[in-house]
Inverse folding.
């Protein structure tokens, strides 16, 4: 600190290099974003554009699509697979994959239903058992991968089949267990909506929180002599969020509003985002995904990070399966089957989590599942059956992976990891 | 100028061997580093220098032999153990995470936190460290993938300086550096020595070795092949020990020491 250059006292410490073409104001923030996009650091842009395209097309084909009622439903339907996708983001970030999330969610649905309905356990105990089973499954995968050196796609592929078997066995001959409509779980998944006034309060809180955290960080950086976002930029950003969320909430409130289940999903996304970006654990996750050997040499317990990622993934898959059962008010042989598995993985990838490890964010699950669910809902409204849904979702996944690979190449040539 | 240490070694290797399958990478290697001493390890490609470094930094476990640190026999069973002892390493392949930015790489595994990560302090410390090395890095918030080879090497060196090590190991630290940065690193090595650290440096450049090292340890085909006082040995003698040719014609001319000392 003793020899801070005196040449340009006004310039922040981190912007002294003359090769840097960047300031801290509103305009330079915009040009910075444009430049990043051009160099292949696409961020959330392609997905937001994609979402707009999908919505426009479906709205043109069927005007019900963008109605409040349909969107309310769309959000509720997206939660269970979205929660599963959140777990998939974790394993993808450390450079692994879990192909069994569908089976694990189905197993969890069956386990919850059987223990709660047939064995008469209290609901919290049944839920804890299902999530505990998920955690145990993730732990087993982690042991296979880290101790035996089994590639994760093989380990989880084996799990896919085995846990499907366990699910079918649990459900027994009838093959289905209904959850009582008056149980808290079903109520939560079907009927619990945020009161309108509270939803607006939440929106204001979100925007205020975005501004407050941005502002304190900027002040701290400025006090330390580093560049910081201008207050104007922060205000614009928060106002933008306020307007966007406010409009969305107003529109949804014209129908039933926002489900508590969706709010909880967003809460999970925010919590994971915080853990990934603001804690040492999150830093280690990205490091292991980027270069596991370098992470090991930095003293990170790589095995523990892998284990954490697998456990988190399977636990979230279990939670997602439970929510799916609650939404359906039943667990059956089709729980977690069909396209659940691929939809969850596709959501994570479409949302911008790299299959190559070390890149992505918790928001990928949220954005990705909105795309998947929009397609699904739109095709259902057009009376097209699941065959079309599979085809279109598959194509979108292929597109997303191609985009991921292309962006990766472009980043390499533009010097961004 | 050359501070000759009087205390005992801070770090010693005693008869260390390491095999990779059929390849005996190291056989019965001894090495001593004292505080306030720069030991250069030289040897041909594949002589086992990097393997030695990896054993000291906990990346590999030795098959036989022992490591003595601060007078106590220690087992270094992982990189975390080496860090805890105070052994910092700059690896030949740098071992950086390309997807993380400079600050994140510098503090990887020992992030500063006050509840959550303290990014501002880490960024300040990063600038401080990099300035110490005259690093030409435009921004510490860009991913390491976008840095040049030399800039990455500077980052790797800067990382080893964090956390107050007692011994610092540099595996070919100047291989990718420009003129000014090489001089800076050599100067830094001297400053580290003057601060009382033991420094192990690996280099293929006789000039550098003779400029900063107090002792030169030669490895040949995984075995010790002589330890020389840098002040008393000629480049020819070192080269002869490296290639193992006694037959190499001994050059009578001894280059003047001190010619290339003042290159900061
Ligand atoms: N992980 C490994 N697995 C198998 N063999 C290895 C491994 N690491 C090193 N070796 C072998 O050990 C020997 C010594 O390698 P090392 O990397 O220590 O050489 P070096 O002296 O650092 O060479 P250079 O000057 O090229 O860096 C070589 O024969 C190499 O093939
Ligand atoms: Mg080497």
């Amino acid at each position: 600190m003793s020899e801070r250059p005196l040449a340009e006292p006004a310039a922040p410490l981190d912007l002294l290099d003359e090769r840097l073409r960047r300031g801290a104001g509103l305009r330079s923030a915009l040009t910075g974003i444009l430049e990043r996009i051009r160099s292949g650091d696409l961020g959330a842009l392609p997905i937001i554009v994609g979402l707009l395209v999908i919505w426009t097309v479906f709205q043109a084909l069927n005007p019900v699509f963008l109605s409040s009622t349909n969107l309310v439903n769309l959000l509720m339907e997206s939660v269970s697979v979205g929660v599963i996708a959140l777990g998939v983001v974790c394993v993808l970030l450390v450079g692994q994959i879990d192909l069994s999330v569908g089976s694990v969610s189905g197993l969890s649905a069956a386990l919850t239903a059987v223990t709660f309905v047939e064995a008469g356990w209290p609901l919290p105990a049944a839920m804890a058992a299902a999530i505990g089973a998920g955690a145990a499954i993730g732990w087993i995968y982690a042991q296979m991968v880290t101790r035996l050196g089994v590639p994760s796609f093989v380990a989880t592929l084996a799990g896919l089949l085995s846990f499907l078997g366990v699910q079918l066995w649990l459900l027994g001959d009838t093959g289905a267990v209904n959850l009582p409509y008056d149980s808290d779980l079903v109520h939560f998944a079907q009927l619990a909506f945020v009161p309108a006034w509270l939803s607006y309060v939440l929106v204001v809180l979100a925007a205020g929180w975005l501004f407050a955290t941005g502002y304190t960080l900027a002040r701290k950086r400025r006090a330390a002599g580093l560049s910081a976002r201008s207050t104007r930029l922060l205000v614009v950003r928060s106002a933008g969020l306020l307007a966007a969320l406010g409009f969305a909430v107003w529109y949804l409130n014209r129908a039933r509003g926002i489900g508590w289940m969706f709010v909880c999903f967003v809460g999970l996304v925010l919590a994971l985002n915080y853990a990934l970006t603001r804690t040492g654990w999150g830093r280690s996750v990205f490091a292991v995904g980027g270069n596991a050997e370098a992470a090991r040499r930095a003293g990170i317990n790589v095995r523990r990070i892998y284990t954490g990622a697998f456990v988190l993934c399977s636990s979230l898959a279990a939670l997602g399966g439970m929510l799916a059962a609650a939404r359906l008010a039943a667990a059956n042989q089709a729980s977690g089957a069909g396209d659940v598995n691929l939809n969850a993985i596709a959501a994570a990838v479409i949302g911008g989590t790299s299959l190559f490890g070390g890149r992505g964010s918790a928001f990928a699950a949220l954005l990705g599942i909105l795309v998947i669910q929009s397609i699904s809902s739109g095709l259902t409204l057009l009376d097209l059956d699941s065959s079309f849904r599979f085809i279109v979702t598959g194509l979108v996944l292929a597109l997303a992976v191609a985009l991921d690979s292309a962006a990766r190449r472009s980043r390499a040539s533009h010097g961004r990891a | 100028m050359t501070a000759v240490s009087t205390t005992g070694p801070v770090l010693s290797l005693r008869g260390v061997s390491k095999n990779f399958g059929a390849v005996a990478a190291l056989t019965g290697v001894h090495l001593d580093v004292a505080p306030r001493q720069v030991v250069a390890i030289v040897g041909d490609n594949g002589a086992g220098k990097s393997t030695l470094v990896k054993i000291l930094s906990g990346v590999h476990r030795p098959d036989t032999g022992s490591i003595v640190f601060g007078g106590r026999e220690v087992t270094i069973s992982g990189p975390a153990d080496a860090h805890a002892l105070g052994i910092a390493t700059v690896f030949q392949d740098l071992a950086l995470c390309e997807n993380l930015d400079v600050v994140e790489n510098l503090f990887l595994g020992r992030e500063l936190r006050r509840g959550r990560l303290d990014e501002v302090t880490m960024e300040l410390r990063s600038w401080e460290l990099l300035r110490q090395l005259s690093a030409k890095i435009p921004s510490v918030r860009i991913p390491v993938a976008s840095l040049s080879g030399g800039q990455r090497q500077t980052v790797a060196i800067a990382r080893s300086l964090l956390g107050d090590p007692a011994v610092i190991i540099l595996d070919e630290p100047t291989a990718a550096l420009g003129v000014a940065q090489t001089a800076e690193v050599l100067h830094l090595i001297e400053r580290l020595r003057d601060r009382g650290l033991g420094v192990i440096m690996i280099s293929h450049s006789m000039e550098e070795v003779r400029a900063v090292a107090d002792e030169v340890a030669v490895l040949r085909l995984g075995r010790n092949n002589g330890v020389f006082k840098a002040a008393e040995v000629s480049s020819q003698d070192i080269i002869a020990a490296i290639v193992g040719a006694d037959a190499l014609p001994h050059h009578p001319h001894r280059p003047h020491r001190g010619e290339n000392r003042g290159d900061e």
User: Anything to note?
Assistant: Residues B 20, 23, 25, 43, 45-51, 92 surround adenosine-5'-triphosphate (ligand 1) (CB under 6 Å). The first strand of chain B starts at residue 11 and ends at 20. Residues 179-194 of chain B form the longest helix (16 residues).
